[in-house]
Amino acid sequence: METMWLLCVAAAVLAWGFLWVWDSSERMKSREQGGRLGAESRTLLVIAHPDDEAMFFAPTVLGLARLRHWVYLLCFSAGNYYNQGETRKKELLQSCDVLGIPLSSVMIIDNRDFPDDPGMQWDTEHVARLLLQHIEVNGINDHANTVASVAITGHHSS
Prior knowledge:
By secondary structure, the chain is an alpha/beta fold.
């Protein structure tokens, strides 16, 4: 009886050891494949103004960084509604640094065509032209993410 119990324990330990090694091997393979694919992936985040990257995209950016995606950020205004545009641009760059977006991959469009004014309408065709140009210049090959910031922040496109 004691021998049978010992054999059962040995079998359980061997099975557990086999599953543990197999699971570790599968996780390692998955990580290697994810790293390889991610290193080639270029993702674009499109926001209306500074702070959207943190309010809407922080978990997404952190997840993409973990998968080794190259993340770009395109911000359509400096967030100057309360005459704090320079401060908000600096805060955006600091936030991107913390989130792991290289500062060389951040573009802030500080242009009178895209004022941070909920009462103003942005020209949809102008937005689309700049967006497509940014995608082409930076070789965005994975996807572009944006939020419905038009509805949320009041920036309506005409």
